[in-house]
Amino acid sequence: MVLENLVLRLAGISHHFGEIDEASRRSMINLVRKAKSSIKIVSGELNFDFYSYDGLLDALKEAIEKGVVVKCIIGPNPNKESFKMLTRLKGCAYFYQLPEWPDFHFTLIDDKHARLEAPHTPGQKVRDEYIIHNFKDVEELKERFDKLEKLAVPVETA
């Protein structure tokens, strides 16, 4: 495990395994704060423990105020409370809903930084996540997001 972590760090990748906690929230906040033009999120349920965190909501609001476009694609049964909080974001925030649970969850910042989640079932508390800066294979994630966006239905927000 020590060697694996060293290799990941040398490659510019940070890895977190465990329950959603302060470290995983902080890594997402740091990514969101890097955004200059776009934040693209693919999430299944909008996990309440993760997305309801004030620091993350504040970082998303700040990004939108800077003119960053936020697009979020969600599965068919998002957490109602998280969804309500996120859809209150005013400005350039767009939400889309898929008829099925997305098989791969990720966040893409400015089409170059990424947060990837290992596949997991709805409600699963323990998961792997990877943060990759200046991701060289970002094209595949951009294509995946664009494909999902075409399949999803825009969600009306208040």
Report on this structure.
The chain has an eight-stranded mixed sheet with strand order 1-7-6-5-2-3-4-8, sandwiched between helices. The chain is α+β, with helices and mostly antiparallel strands. Strand 5 and strand 6 form a beta hairpin. It has helices spanning about 1-10, 20-35, 50, 55-65, 80-85, 140-150, and strands spanning about 15-20, 40, 70-75, 95, 105-110, 115, 125-130, 155. The protein starts with a helix and ends with a strand. Helix content is about 35%, strand content about 25%. It has one domain: Endonuclease Chain A (Endonuclease, Chain A). The chain contains six helices and eight strands, in the order αβαβααβαββββαβ. Helix 2 runs parallel beside helix 4. The longest helix is centred in the C-terminal third of the chain and has 14 residues, at about 140-150. Residues about 1-10 have low confidence and may be disordered.
What is the secondary structure topology, with strand pairs?
Blueprint: H1 2-10, E1 13-19, H2 22-34, E2 38-42, H3 48-51, H4 54-65, E3 69-74, H5 80-86, E4 93-97, E5 106-109, E6 113-117, E7 126-132, H6 138-151, E8 153-154
Helix pairs in contact: 2-4
